[in-house]
Amino acid sequence: MPFFLVAAGKDLRRHAADWPALLTWMGIPVAIGVLMFLISGSASTPRVPKAKLLLVDQDGSVISQFVGNGATSGRMAEFLDVERVALDEGKRRMANGEASAMLVVPEGFGQALLEERPSELRLVTNPAQRLLPGIVQEGLEILIEAAFYAQRLFGEPLRQLAAVGPEGPSSAEVASIATAFNERIRALDGVAFPPVLVLDIQPAASGEAKTSAAPNFGLLFVPGLLLMSVLFVVQGMSGDIWHEKQLGTLRRSRVLPASIAQWLAGKVLASTVLVSAIATVALLAAWLAFGIPAVRVPLAWVWACLSGAALLCYFCLLQVSASSERGAQLLGTLVVFPLIMIGGSFFPFEAMPAWMAAVGARTPNGLAVVRLREILDGRATLMPMLLSAVGIAGPALAAFWLTVRRLSGQFPVA
């Protein structure tokens, strides 16, 4: 049996005996992923925050009813839940924190609006909430703006209509009001009829629609969390170099017929086996929980294994570059956590500033996350994948060679 297989088997048996460490490597990303999923919810059923508004209508006019109807129609209904209540009940429920805000429409509001006289709408917000009362306030400001522009356009005919007595308008008044409305509408020719801005919405092709659709939770977080587990595994596996140096097995390995390169290749193989097991569990969970097509799983599994082997080579070079085991641990920690933060493992690239996402996508684990996302999303193409594989594996081979050179020198006996 080749020596590197014997070395890999020895490492696997030793790490299998230390199963708490394995559970720690895999458990931290899983726990973070579960918490993120519980916080964000399923991407297929997004939760839109909805503010509870208590409306106290003391006016009872057509215009005051329009305020309530405007808040419960169109897009505003997606963010506001309006309930008409009496003033005393509204105060009681606001005191109990049962609503986000209470709006009081005073008596005479409709007439004051028609006559363009000052009138005060009283808005009481819940101090225990921050976001939802702001939604109510923004919606109220939109209604006030609409009333302002309606006054600018149709103020005069509206005042004529409000001045009509209880016996109803005469024929001359009807003609005058209708003429005034018609003149205001005709004045909008070329501005609103037709509108100055035209929105042309073209339906996307089926393929484009799938590509532009918002990714689900699995596509957003599974690649990053999987690479986070890989980083923890390779950091722990690379630390074996110092462990074996302290035990003297590294020094004895130099007198064996096999080269030190085969000894290190065994560690790379053992690490790749552990990474493959983690990738199998993570990708099967993504397939079952998030509906990722099964046909994409094998290529994603191969890519995760390649990334794990390359990352181990990088971390082995870090380990042998340190002057002590404690220094190596500190150096590995100083490298792994920035890589996790900026490489798309803890935060998706979509949630980062543009410059940070650009830098993170060019780190070894960040590049692995980007390509893994493309594989799971069905957007992977041959040439970018090959270039990325060369970009990850090429420096990893150089790191492997430099590590072998260091292990073949004074490191085992220093």
What does this structure look like?
The protein is mainly alpha-helical and 414 residues long. The chain folds into 2 domains: 3-43 and 217-408; 51-186, 3-Layer(aba) Sandwich (abc type-2 transporter like fold). The protein is 66% helix and 5% strand. It has a 4-stranded mixed β-sheet with strand order 2-1-3-4, sandwiched between helices. Helix 3 (62-71) links the parallel strand 1 (51-57) and strand 2. Helix 9 (217-238) runs antiparallel to helix 12 and helix 13 runs antiparallel to helix 16. It is elongated. The model is unreliable at 42-46 and 207-214 (pLDDT under 50).
How many strands, which pairing sense, and closed or not: the largest β-sheet? 4 strands, mixed
Helix vs. strand class: mainly alpha
What is the assembly state of the chains in this entry? Answer: single chain
**Ends apart, CA distance between termini:** 31 Å
Low-confidence parts: 42-46, 207-214
Shape: elongated
Strand % is 5-15%
| H/E series | HHEHEHEHEHHHHHHHHHHHH
Strands of the biggest beta sheet: in what spatial order?
2-1-3-4
Helix content range: 55-70%
Average pLDDT, to the nearest integer? 80
**Total DSSP helices:** 17
Strand elements, count: 4
The count of domains is 2
Write the layout of secondary structure elements.
Elements: H1 3-17, H2 19-40, E1 51-57, H3 62-71, E2 80-84, H4 87-95, E3 101-105, H5 109-114, E4 122-125, H6 131-162, H7 171-186, H8 206-212, H9 217-238, H10 240-247, H11 249-253, H12 260-290, H13 297-321, H14 325-342, H15 354-360, H16 364-377, H17 382-408
Helix pairs in contact: 1-12, 2-9, 6-7, 9-12, 9-13, 9-14, 9-16, 12-13, 13-14, 13-16, 13-17, 16-17
